[in-house]
Amino acid sequence: MSSTSSTSVDIFRAIMNHGPLTLYSANQKTRIPIGTIHRHFKLLRDSGKIRVYKSKNKGRKKIEYGPTIYGILNAYKDDKEIAEKIENYFLIWMEHNEFQKELQVEGFDISPDKLKGSKTIFRKYMNYFSAVESQIEKIKSGQDQVSRDVLIILSSHILSSEPRYQKMWSELYSDLPGMQKSLDQYMESMIQSYNDFKKNFRKNRSRTK
User: Distance between CA atoms of 129 and 134, rounded to whole angstroms?
Assistant: First the structure.
C-alpha cells in the first residue's frame, strides 16, 4: 500500500472510530497535518467514500464528514481492524440519519427490533461486495480478463441511457439477424441462471424452516 493510500486509510479509520469529524477534529485524533487531511478529505469525498453529515453540535455549525457504505466497503477490504469490528460499526453509525438512508436504499430493514439480524446481514453484505470491489480492481488493472462479449453487453447497457445510441442499438438489433441471435442467447442464458438461482434459493430456504 502506498503512503498516500495508507494516510487515507488512517483518516478514514479515525472517522469510523470518532466521527463524524471536521478537518480540525480529524487533526486532533490523528495528528496528521491539516493540509494533508484537507487533501485526503477531498480525495475521499470525490471518490464517494465519505459525505457531509448533519452536525449534532449546538452553536456554530461546522462541516462534519462521515462514511458512505461504499467507503466502508473499501475500508473493510483494506483494513483488518475495521473488518473485525464491522458489526459494532454498524450499530454505531445506525445512530445517524445519513447512514440509515443509505442502508434503506440498499434494502436493509432498519427497524429497531431488526437490528440484531441486520448487523449480521451487514457483515455478509461487506464480505460479498468487498470481494466484488476487489474483482473490479483486478479487471481495471488487467490482472483479470473479461470476455469481449460481456464487455460489449456492459458497454451497450451504459450507452443505452443516451437516446441516440438507444435508437442505433434498436435499429442494429432489427437489421442484423446474427447480432439479434447472439443477444437473445446471452439474455436467455442470464434469465435461466437467474431462474436457477431463485429455484435453489427457495429450495434451501424451505429446508431451513
Answer: 9
